[in-house]
Input
Amino acid sequence: MFIDTHCHLEVQAFDDLDAVLARAKDAGVGGFLLPGANPKDLQKAKEIAHAHPNIFYAAGVHPYHAREYDEEHLKSFLSDEKCIAVGECGMDFFRLPQDEVEKEEEKKLQQECFIAQIKLANTYKKPLIVHIRDASDISKQLLLQYAKVGGVLHCFNASEHLLDLSDRGFYFGIGGVVTFKNAKKLVEILPKIPLEKIVLETDAPYLAPHPHRGKRNEPSYIPLIVEKIAQIRNMKFSEIKAQLRENTNQLFKEFRQFD
Output
């Protein structure tokens, strides 16, 4: 069985959720984790999780929504048994304002929001789901300084100097990007990631793997990611599948019941 550790099934793009879940089941995907990104979608994620025993969710605020951060709102979800992680939270400097003053204000805001969520993860003893884009140095610094729990580096962006975070309990989320023709850097670094520290994710409905690139992504495409990982690491599909399943159990223990 595969577990999709990062899919946004709560968003409007999945108005056919029952059909999406049926296709996932046919593809051998038997568990799902819905990360929080937009605070407005958390209630929907909670409802979906409580309607399906094999679906869980996380509560967090994506850096693009840092101005909407409300700690009490997050706490109301973090106490829920179906909420098993904090995130996705982190730093994203890809779309910063052009004005230098506004740029620095945005960086500061994202940093404060990230630190606050790391501290929540420490308090609730839940793993972090970390989003990093064009902000590897500061993100690593904050994790080393504040994080007392591990988690997953979502949509790992092939920054090799982040690999030693595996010693601090962090896993690396590999998704459809690894199948892209222009993912040369990730393909080169993938063999350097400890196999026991990789988990699967789709980031659905975004970043669909080849040959579905440009279309809506969904959990049923997980086997395409596993095939590519097996090819790059020169291993059998079954070996990769078994190890990554065990990795997920180690990070998100709630999925063990579905073995």
Observations:
- The longest helix spans residues 100-124.
- Residues 34 and 57 are 4 Å apart (CA to CA).
